[in-house]
Amino acid sequence: MTSQQTTLGEDATTAEELAEGQREISIAEFFEKNKHMLGFDSGARGLVTAVKEAVDNALDATEEAGFRPDIYVEIREVGDYYRLVVEDNGPGITKEQLPKVFGKLLYGSRFHAREQTRGQQGIGISAAVLYSQLTSGKPAKVTSRTQGSADAEYFELIIDTDTNEPEIQAERTTSWDRSHGTRIELEMEANMRARAQLHDYIKHTAVVNPHARIELREPGLDEPLKFERATDQLPAETKEIRPHPHGVELGTLIKMLGATDSYSVSGFMQGEFTRVGKKTADSVIANFRDRHFGRELGWPARNGAPSADVEADIEEALRDAISNKGADATDTFAERVANSLTERERTSYTQLVDIVGTVADEVGTETGKTFGTTVRENAVAAAWAELTQFGTDEEGDEFDRLTPTLHELVDDATSTRKDDAAVHGLAERLAQRFAGDDEPNRMRFTLSELKTLVDEAGDATEEYDDETFGDTARENIVESLWERMVTVPDEPPNVDEIAGDRDTASELLEAMRETDILAPPTDCLAPITEDLVEAGLRKEFDADFYAAATRDAEVHGGDPFVVEAGIAYGGEIEAGGTIQLMRFANRVPLVYQRGACATTNVVKRIGWRNYGLDQPGGSGMPSGPAVLSIHVASTNVPFTSESKDALASVPEIEDEIELAIREAARELKSYLNKRRSMAKRREKQDVLGRILPQMADKVAEVTGREHPNIEGAMARIMNNVGVDRERDGETVRLSVENHSDRGESLEITEIVSAEPGDLPDGVDAIEMDDEWFLNWNPDVDSGETIELEYSLPTDADADATVDGVDDEKLTVNA
Ligand SMILES: Nc1ncnc2c1ncn2[C@@H]1O[C@H](COP(=O)(O)OP(=O)(O)OP(=O)(O)O)[C@@H](O)[C@H]1O
Predict the structure, then answer these.
(1) Which of 61, 385, 436, 814 is the most exposed place for a label (fewest CB within 10 A)?
(2) 536 in the Ramachandran plot: left (φ > 0), alpha (ψ -120 to 50) or beta?
(3) Looking at the predicted complex, does its ipTM rise above 0.90?
């Protein structure tokens, strides 16, 4: 014992004394001490979190019941406290469930459901109740009315933190003007310092939930903040899905194996998992067999045989092994088995047993002789020895059918030229290990057994033959051997056996993970969709440009997810500083911990200069008048903590976020590029507009001739589409000259103040309030000129509007 331990030992506490102080900690007690984990770390933040939890639940409940959400939020100062009321028109909560929903942490309907919902853990609203009772000492007051019931139920309750059970302080039926829904009233110590975050949360909730009507009253607002419904369309209904084989953990798998009614692995796989039909179940079982039983090595009949006539040798060995069947039956049997083996590329032990069995049955039927079990076993042993003989016989002759095959395989699998003697040495050592002493030696190995054998043989070769066989060479050898080996047909253990044995369950899990399985279905997800992402941005931001992208569904840890991104640029969006980033998870705005969020990391790592935005230093948040919104929808959103403020860094999700952003950003880039080139064009045209008349004056002055006609020159110089009018008496001629390098389709509306005549076919004049509208839609090829001619009284006015070509590429003198 060290001196320090002696000293410590003097007043050390005994295990018994320690035990007296040890007791179970209730989940409610835990969160009482760790409020920050749930987003209740301060009065300001606590109020926002309580609003968020109640509104998220209200939206989940109303949508799930198929009602268009109508949500009312009120915050009022009451003495030293703030009172929060949230009302919804959802389905209500039954009298039996209500106390648990609000008075028990970790109680909810969503934790076990694989479906896209805002709520996930069953903590949110009860944590708000806990926070309110801890800070104000007041109970939560809940009113709820289920559809069709005459009255509403009213409860006052708190959470007993020792037991994590609701303690009901008052309970009665009451009347309520809503025909169904839930109302919760919480009093808490709070302040409005996080007003900006509260407004952001409500406003952004409205952006991504255009089907909801939300009203917020709070002390700082003279008028309530109202967000009217922009669509009657509820988000697509989501379906719950079974777990995906790639997403379960070992503990869950063992639990599922214990609970299932299925007997066979195939039934279990097909019944309990999504995307598993008969074929996929078979692939999982094949992989499971490989792990559980190992695979068998197969051997060619011809390779390495000492005699040229392999077939004859095998026949002879078989004849020697069989007695009492008569010459005919014995010969036929031996010939057929030998022939079958020599025709095959390789044969494994189990395959050989099958071949012998089939031939024995056939020859038995044909000749009337019975080929019993012993005869078959002897035949298998004899033929197997012919395929795999290794060693030295009594006369000192070597029998080695394995080394030549392995030599070839090792040679192929090792890329760098190895010394041939060393390759031979390794092949021989492997052969030695494969030959083994088992009786019968079926040469059955699991992948890890195979690795060990290759390693042993490799180490020995390095030691004795002075040649290195590095990791890559060894892996390649193992891989080629494993690929050549065959899956055995043995019945896999049944569900009960697997459930009772952790190692076997782990083999099944590995097999599930390794099998290629279709991604989970996505009808459990309801993305906002590209159009609505853009519509949401248009509703809230007056910008010059909008783009949105919704990616296809992907999977992380067995849970499907979809990422969407939207960009609004320019217009009224503030230009100073970095862009605004809006983050959403399952349609819930994330307002805190932006810096810790995977979305922020991804935005920062993108090179925004490539997309036309400023990015000081080439990395980090870009700057400019832009809003970027990112939505991740999943049956299991990975948050960094229970307060659900930030997305955790899951590589699969980050990759999709990046691709979604880049998709929308590419549109922004082409918009900005075009805008830049248009601005340049405008500048050039402005200059030309000033210079051309001056040049015309000069030319006229110098040459003493008339002013040259500069109309049309501008269009030619700028490679524009020029639209010119000529009037000759009553004849009006509109000509369109395309100087650009591509064909253009124009929409020209000519408005005239008197009735036009002599209109060409296809051009009509429509009269409205003493004005005539002529619509002309010419397609003009590059370099082509097209004319519209008609007649008009000389004193009538005419004016043309041209659409279909950017203003900057158009020169109109008409
Ligand atoms: N306004 C409501 N109307 C109907 N049911 C509700 C309402 N609020 C909550 N519930 C029910 O109570 C359960 C518990 O809600 P709670 O907020 O504690 O957890 P959650 O929303 O499931 O998950 P999270 O902890 O992630 O918010 C919900 O799963 C839902 O079944």
Answers:
(1) 436
(2) alpha
(3) yes
